[in-house]
DNA sequence: TTTATTTGTTAGATGAATCTAACTTTGTAG
DNA sequence: CTACAAAGTTAGATTCATCTAACAAATAAA
């Protein structure tokens, strides 16, 4: 049995591991908003449960089992976000908090139902991939908008940070997944970009914004 | 702030109060499957929070605030059951457990959305009324099938016990809300009833079953 | 009305998840 | 290569929800 709290630790560890594969206690502590000693003892507990590989002063790693558990939670989270948008009519900036709670519901049928009502989606409303039924996750290799050169036209496929604030920033500029963006020019000084897309022929995006937009 | 656990106490108290209005610690303890001393201390806590009227050795009562809080949780539970059946295609015997978890989700918009998708339903899939947005609940005054005399035809409007087992018993006999039931004869010895309805011209129902079927 | 049963309360222990304060290891900047 | 900062650990306290054991009150039965 994995508790609500333990699920949150696994999920964070899973998400933080996406790049490097190894995560520090401090990093995890920050991400969860929980103090290091608490994280420390939880890691010992999760080690006992064979969900995490933990040795003092070494970086943290999920075991295969831990990875699967965590992947399935992320699956539930992302399916829920998709459900909230596609079936219930929420906008993409309102779904995170709700999904954060629903991801802990214990009922495979409930999520299977969502999955089939949605037609087995592979990405959530922010373009993040939905892990499969074994908890496996693969990111398509998108480029960040930052890597695109002037003149190119690309399609917005995902956003990295899905905080309400950032999403509302995008809403305000009518930027949504699927939008075809043409990079008009790049300011080499601060890496801000002048872009154009349907309905917006001249929009400025800062480096901070560009690096969070994944395109292909 | 009312915790997940506290919500469950309030809800049970609310449901048990429906008839009498007053509930004993023992009764509540049984209903929640939690030992009396635990219930006892929780009552003291809920008294501090002005949700329950509690005095040693006196029966328990919800305050107006407590009644509202509890009513809103029941509202969330029943809206969820309705949503699971009408929107997600679950059968009425599969929804209780899931609703038991979803009722604790903190998101008014989520339940408002359900409510409007369902067209503001007034009863759940078992015929129990859904409290309004202020947590107020009124039961229509149905009769139990037990009170119906031979020869009468009535409509099944609600079931009292919504355990999986009982609901599957009804499924197996094709008895659902709305079914028009004709009472053919009543066995005065054990109060079992011979009834007929569409597709079932001769079905026997025990007293135990009849008293749980609410009709009009 | 005395006694027995049921119901309710108090006291004290436990486990989960959290914290702060103090200490230790690791790794990096002089 | 020391020394200092950052990261990690240990120890011990706190809060919440739960339990068992023992005691007290209320109620029902004899």
Please list the strands of the largest sheet of chain A in the order they lie side by side. Answer: 3-8-4-5-6-7
**Superfamily at the CATH H level of the largest domain in chain A?**
Ferrous iron transport protein A (FeoA)
Largest interface: A-B, 18 and 19 residues
CATH architecture field of the largest domain in chain A:
Roll
What is the helical fraction of chain A, as a range of percent?
Answer: 40-55%
Largest sheet of chain A: 6 strands, antiparallel
Please give the alpha-carbon distance between the first and last residues of chain A.
Answer: 41 Å
Which structural class best describes the helix and strand composition of chain A? alpha+beta
- The stretches of 5 or more residues of chain A where confidence is low (pLDDT under 50) are none
Instruction: Domain count of chain A, please report it.
Output: 3
Note the total helix count of chain A.
8
Classified by CATH, the class of the largest domain in chain A is Mainly Beta
Molecular shape of chain A = globular
Oligomer: homodimer
Instruction: Indicate the proportion of strand residues of chain A.
Output: 15-25%
Radius of gyration of chain A over alpha carbons?
A: 19 Å
CATH topology of the largest domain in chain A: SH3 type barrels
Q: How many DSSP E strands of chain A? A: 8
What number is the mean pLDDT of chain A?
96
SSE series of chain A: HHHEEHHHEEHEEEHE
